[in-house]
Amino acid sequence: MYKCSMYNNVFLGKKEGFEIYNSMTKARISVDDREYLEQVLVNGTDESTMQVLVENGFLVDEGLDEVSALRYVYNKRYFSTASLGIIMLPTMACNFNCPYCFEKPSLHIIKNESSNYFDVIEKYIVKQVTHFRHVNLNFFGGEPLLKRDEIKKFAKNVHILSDRLGFSIGSTIVTNGSLIDESVMESLILVNCNLMQITIDGAKAQHDGTRIFKNGVPSFDLLIDKIKFVASFVAKNPSLRLLIRFNLNNTSINDVEETLNLFQPDIRKYISLLFRPVYETKEYHEENSNHYDGLDLFNQLGHDMGFSIYKNRRTYLSCEACGDTNVIHVLPDLSLWKCVNDLSFEAAKIGKLTEDGDVEWNANRVLEWYRYSDFLQDEKCKNCSMSPDCLGGCIRNHILTGRHRCGSFEALSSSYQYV
To answer: Could you tell me if residue 374 is left (phi over 0), alpha (psi between -120 and 50 degrees) or otherwise beta?
Structure first.
């Protein structure tokens, strides 16, 4: 016997009829005749339809405790040892002066940059790969390519280590794009870079008012050329994805279309798009008409123009901070953090790397972070049909406020959300 899944969500379709979306399996179906489907669900009158509903999780065994199943899947991902994720921040410096930068208010906290930063991480990898089959490197910052010479050497060394010690390796990079050149691309491909993110702020006039160099020089035209340059590498390296993150800050659909039209149709298939509203920081407080609920308008535009829409590959985890010691941010002073959105938030600082590549963990903070990540302790989350997608929201926010912040239903249930 079966019952309807508690994670079914019914809403009006974009064109006609309605859709049912299951947040646990990420399956969705479009339905014209609601009465017919309700009869199938209640009476089981159509065996072939029933089979489809069971296979996709819309119907589940009546004895299944779905909350326990979600807890099992979540914990399995949280404590996974399949991959070691190292988010590297070799410098907090940047050659841009973006007003909304979330790191600006905290720059004074990291007083020192380790001169042995990359050597120490190499030692750390060597000591950890007996526990992990795969190592994923994320080059972040600040602007990571201010350390491009060190990154090139590091990439070569890690490539050699992966061959010698028998672990696989992948990498991503979040960069403002200004320092990309052929030698940088070749070094990233050496460590199997599968994603490069470059940010654009709307159309040229808006972008050149926000994403400017420290000396006041605008960057829009340069970055458009750099994106086209990277797209040429993507064409020859299909495992590499180029992602343009569009910061939306009172940005219209026409602004985005104006920028997207700068890319010829033949290269659009090599470019993925991610749209995100700019949010307030400690030092940036501006009203923004763009919200998560309205992102599908931009997604649809990008799709219709021949671009790929970037979809979430991180199921059952709310963000990169949602994990045990298998995912860490390594700051320039070799301190280890779960979240770097606010470096005055000491609860996110969970340890430090020694010069020998060993880890000094703050066990109490590691355990506390998991306790706050356990959203299923909250009755509202436990009974919510969108819990497998929302996962209680931002862990940092929960620690600060004592409350789980609900995600946008429209954004979470979007057909553009998951692969």
So the answer is: beta
**Tokens 């000396």 map to which residue?**
215
Note whether 219 and 176 are within 8 A (CB).
Answer: yes
| Alpha carbons 126 and 133: distance in angstroms, whole number | 12
> In terms of Cα–Cα distance, which of 344, 346, 349 is closest to 334?
349
CA dihedral 211, 214, 217, 222 (to 10 degrees): -60
| Cβ contact 272:301 at 8 Å | no
Q: Which residue has the tokens 């720059």?
A: 107
According to DSSP, the β-strands at 349-353 and 335-337 are antiparallel
Asked if 402 and 85 count as a contact pair (C-beta separation under 8 A), the reply is no
Query: What region does 56 belong to: left with phi over 0, alpha with psi -120 to 50, or beta?
Result: alpha
Going by C-alpha positions, the residue among 66, 64, 65, 17 that lies closest to residue 37 is 17
Distance CA 287, CA 73 (A): 38
Find where tokens 């049909």 sit: 385
DSSP one-letter code for 305? T
Tokens found for residue 350 = 């969970």
Measure Cα distances from 382 to 7, 73, 142, 393, 404 in Å.
11, 14, 38, 13, 12
Whether the CB-CB separation of 371 and 385 falls below 8 Å is answered with no
How far, in Å, CA of 243 to CA of 110, rounded? 29
Cα–Cα distance between 314 and 336 in angstroms, integer? Answer: 22
For the chain (419 residues), the mean pLDDT of every run of 10, in chain order, is: 91 74 91 72 72 92 96 95 96 94 82 94 96 96 96 97 96 98 96 97 96 97 98 94 97 98 97 93 88 94 96 81 95 96 91 98 96 94 94 90 86 77
Hey, how many other C-beta atoms are within 10 angstroms of the C-beta on 275?
Answer: 25
Helices (H), 106-147: 117-128
CA-CA distance, 258 to 298, in Å (whole number)?
12
Cis ω for the linkage preceding 302 (within 30 of 0) = no
Residue 383 to residue 370: CA distance in whole angstroms:
20
